[in-house]
Specification:
Length: 290
């Protein structure tokens, strides 16, 4: 393909909390005393639990340390208890999360992360802070790529539910909130995306599949769309794909449905992948008749 110029219930809301790394002058580990920046919040379905931020981004060099924090506010009339643990995770080709034990993947930073508690209680009306510490290793090979993990806060509450016939049942309401943890070396700046494949509709499903890959060293946020141009009338139709993130090395399959209302005829169809103004657009063009 040629390149043109042109996330039980899991809550994961993208926010920003960046640990500013101190400059390293020797081989000894150094501590980052700058508090990460954070904004926004993740809200439980009841609207009574506020957990923020949902993403903490660190930019540490070899041997550096930084502290982030998760803030939990309980606006419910009952006490909430949380078990805290870390897992690895990845995204598959359609963007779904795949979870695995901590430290089991090559891109994991789970073993670098620590929290001072594995269980917390939050009383009604109370707000608590959960410190999150990350220590980047001195090993150059371990720091040669972006790393990530997921910090989970999980709660189980027993509730008695009575149906219309008076039958009572114990129900365990389990809620799990995931905080994305990202570590990207500060020297990394390379961001790029490539189109690997573009498949036109072959049946009445009218679905185009575009395959792209993040070929850079940093996570990127991607917008993609198709533009169909009628070769006789020059009328143009645009089909957008919702914005999505991509880890370095991740491949993503984007499925576009061609509108049933599109008039019959011959079309030039362009698939575009846009990862931001500082990255050249990736595009591919084909011809098709409906």
């Amino acid at each position: 393909m040629k390149k043109g110029l042109l996330l039980y219930i899991l809550i994961s809301v993208q926010l920003l909390a960046m640990g500013q790394a101190n400059k390293t002058e020797t081989q000894a580990p150094k501590t980052d005393t700058t508090a990460p920046k954070a904004k926004g919040q993740a809200t439980a379905p009841t609207g009574g639990l506020l957990i923020r931020p949902a993403t903490i981004e660190f930019r540490l060099a070899n041997g550096q340390t930084s502290m982030g924090k998760v803030i939990i506010t309980n606006k419910l009339p009952v006490k909430k208890q949380f078990t805290i643990y870390i897992n690895d995770f990845d995204r598959d080709t359609v963007g779904a999360h795949i979870y695995s034990p901590p430290g089991s993947t090559h891109h994991s930073c789970a073993k670098w992360v620590s929290v001072d508690k594995t269980f917390v209680e939050v009383e009604p009306g109370e707000t608590i802070e959960l410190p999150v510490k990350i220590v980047a290793p001195l090993d150059t090979a371990a720091m040669a790529e972006m790393k990530w993990a997921m910090l989970f806060l999980e709660t189980t509450q027993e509730q008695i539910v009575e149906d219309a016939k008076g039958m009572k049942t114990k129900v365990h309401n389990r809620m799990r909130v995931g905080i994305h943890l990202y570590q990207t070396p500060p020297s990394f700046t390379e961001r790029d995306v490539q189109i690997l494949d573009f498949k036109l509709p072959t049946d009445s499903a009218r679905t185009c599949n575009l395959v792209c890959e993040n070929t850079g060293k940093m996570q990127i946020e991607v917008n993609s769309y198709l533009e169909l141009s009628n070769t006789s009338t020059n009328e143009r139709t645009k089909v957008d794909f919702p914005q999505f993130p991509m880890f370095p090395g991740q491949k993503r399959v984007l499925s576009f449905h061609i509108p049933e209302t599109l008039p019959k005829g011959k079309y030039s169809i362009i698939g575009v992948v846009d990862a931001g103004s500082d990255i050249p657009l990736a595009a591919v063009q084909e011809n098709i008749e409906f």
